Amino acid sequence: MRVLVTGVGGFLGSHLAGRLLDRGHAVVGTTWGTSTDLLRVELHEVDLLDPVGLASVVRTVMPEAIIHLAGLSHVGESWQRPADYFQVNVLGTENVLDAALEAGNCRVLLASSAEVYGLVPEERQPIVETEPVAPRTPYALTKAAAERLTVRAGGVVARCFNLVGPGQSDRFALPAFASQLAAIKKGEQDAVLKVGNLSARRDFVHVSDGVAALALLAELGNPGEIYNVASGRAFSIAEALDRLISISGLKVEIKEDKERLRPVDMPLLEGDAAKLRALGWKPEKDLDAALGELWAAVRG
Amino acid sequence: MRVLVTGVGGFLGSHLAGRLLDRGHAVVGTTWGTSTDLLRVELHEVDLLDPVGLASVVRTVMPEAIIHLAGLSHVGESWQRPADYFQVNVLGTENVLDAALEAGNCRVLLASSAEVYGLVPEERQPIVETEPVAPRTPYALTKAAAERLTVRAGGVVARCFNLVGPGQSDRFALPAFASQLAAIKKGEQDAVLKVGNLSARRDFVHVSDGVAALALLAELGNPGEIYNVASGRAFSIAEALDRLISISGLKVEIKEDKERLRPVDMPLLEGDAAKLRALGWKPEKDLDAALGELWAAVRG
After folding, report:
1. pTM for this one?
2. Mapped to the 3 state alphabet, what secondary structure does A158-182 carry?
3. Which residue, B197, B206, B208, is CA-closest to B260?
4. pLDDT tens profile A89-135
């Protein structure tokens, strides 16, 4: 299959490109404002918000599937930049859908987020896809809107819970902890680790399992359907941090940093991925493996 | 024409029903949780979020057009209740679009808001419809998303600037001022008027001109097109308040109330309605007329 991956230079993009190539697919990627040096991936630099440029890339590539990863993905930042989040995540998705439609016979898979579920009572968790979306943050509002556009255009939606592994920006919690631990190990920082809300519980999925799900859904996902990408088990951020510290072998003091707290934080997001599992997916790696790889990538 | 008006019990709904009846249309309305006693309007109580119930109403009524007013419309409140705003404004609109599609040959007009434009530099005002949307508030994010769904389904969008006149909830600035003035006049409140941000400049449209625009667009709007409903002239809230006080003939002290300030407030929203005017619309009543009617309705 010939697959176009938008935002191939990002955290998921590099992992996904590797996965697709391993499975024998041809991979073309788009980037915008980020440099990347993925071997065997044909790259096109194009702005999602340029419908003409994007359609031209799609027409040139003629992919059988587009896996649409490009977007703004930081919940905290979305409170400061809602308009940018709307434009990139909603209008950008619309441009991808239009370009795919114009190119004919091209499936679109949107990478979305469990954040769209919002505050779901514990007794309705792990969450199934039929749970009504109830987005609580600008980021989640834009992803929920992009989902609706995708579903209506016959695309497939992957609602990803917390993907974790090497390569994620340290604006996110676990990579931020890993970077601080690495700095502490190198003596660049006192042995004090700054943290935000540690009580939130999240369903962590190893990034390699996450991209395997995306690759599978791009091939086998039902048009207009939504699939959770989740392990089915939640850990608190505190527990993930404890494991990471233990993997690092360091002794550190933990200190709350008000700057790292968010206006709204869901206490629990745990997903039921039975629908995805029915297509043959199952997670192969656990949280410890993800944390181990994350640590290995940053410890220097 | 047989027209179904969603949210007919609201501020715009009652004015619009009158306008449509005057023009010889048959009017059917939906309400939900509000009571209304509109003469000559057949009413159906149905939740926008109940797609089956809504589709059943539409199938029964078989309208030639749906004017979709129902929704949550308070910018300030949307920061507290983003999930409700998403569900009602986005999923509700989707249900209306689906019901219309199922009923066949039924036009949909969505009442949207100039808030979707966000912070537009003064030199690009009055704003034309080609200005990229850049929503900055949860309310605006949901309306911008609802617009995209409507446009893609071949519906028409009316992007309303500040509609003003009798009947608007006093959670909005001018009706809140009018209510306070009425209370002062009746001796129920000291002669101190509590206000929020008075420096914001807004393009006020008399509600009767606003609903005339909606009625016109339901008949003549081009499928998939967006139309500003605007006077082309902005006044500061301070100026509108001065005029209202002068109309009331009262002497009052003005006091800023921090509770009434919003996290984000656009300094200027002024619209260019050339596209709507080309269909034959023009505003017939000015701000003073709207304020006069508003005052007459509340002064008791």
Report:
1. 0.95
2. EEECEEECCCCCCCCHHHHHHHHHH
3. B197
4. 999 999 999 999 999 889 999 999 999 999 999 999 999 999 999 99
CA B237 to chain A, closest CA, distance in angstroms equals: 24
**How many Å is the Cα radius of gyration of chain B?**
19
- A144 within a domain of the structure (yes/no): yes
* Three-state secondary-structure class, residue B47: coil
Put simply, whether B137 touches A (Cβ < 8 Å) is yes
Q: What mean pLDDT is predicted for residues B110-130?
A: 97
Question: Which residue range forms the structural domain that includes residue A81?
Answer: 2-166+204-231+269-284
Across residues B105-124, what is the average pLDDT?
Answer: 97
How many CA atoms does the CB half-sphere of A69 hold within 13 Å?
27
3-state helix, strand, coil in chain B (%, to 5): 45, 20, 35
Residues of A in contact with B112 (CB under 8 A): none
Give B139's contacts in chain A (Cβ within 8 Å): none
How many contacts, defined by CB atoms under 8 Å, are there between A and B?
A: 76
Q: Does residue A106 lie within any of the structural domains?
A: yes
CB B85 within 8 A of CB B40: no
Contact at 8 Å (CB) between B270 and B230?
yes
CB contact under 8 A, A82 and B119: no
Q: Tokens in use for A36?
A: 């990347």
d(CA A90, CA A87): 6
B-proximal residues of A, 237-296, CB under 8 Å: none
For residue B239, being part of any structural domain is answered with no
**What integer best gives the mean pLDDT of chain A?**
96
Share of chain A above pLDDT 70, in %: 100
On whether the CB atoms of residues B128 and B226 are closer than 8 A, the answer is: no
Mean pLDDT of A248-275: 91
Torsional class of A294: left (φ above 0), alpha (ψ -120 to 50), beta (otherwise): alpha
Which among B94, B134, B153 has CB closest to A83? B134
- Which residues does A142 contact at the CB level (< 8 Å), separation at least 6? A72, A78, A82, A85, A86, A89, A90, B141, B145
- CATH classification of the domain holding B210: 3.40.50.720
| Domain count across chain A | 1
Q: Tell me which residue of B125, B127, B100, B123 sits closest to B113, measured CA to CA.
A: B127
ipTM score of the complex? 0.93
Q: Which two tokens stand for residue A26?
A: 């041809």
Q: Choose among B95, B87, B88, B36: nearest CA to B66.
A: B95
Instruction: Write b or e for each residue in B33-48: b if 16 or more Cβ atoms lie within 10 A of its Cβ, otherwise e.
Output: eeeeebeebebbebeb
Residue A191 within a domain: no
Q: By the CB < 8 Å criterion, does A79 face chain B?
A: no
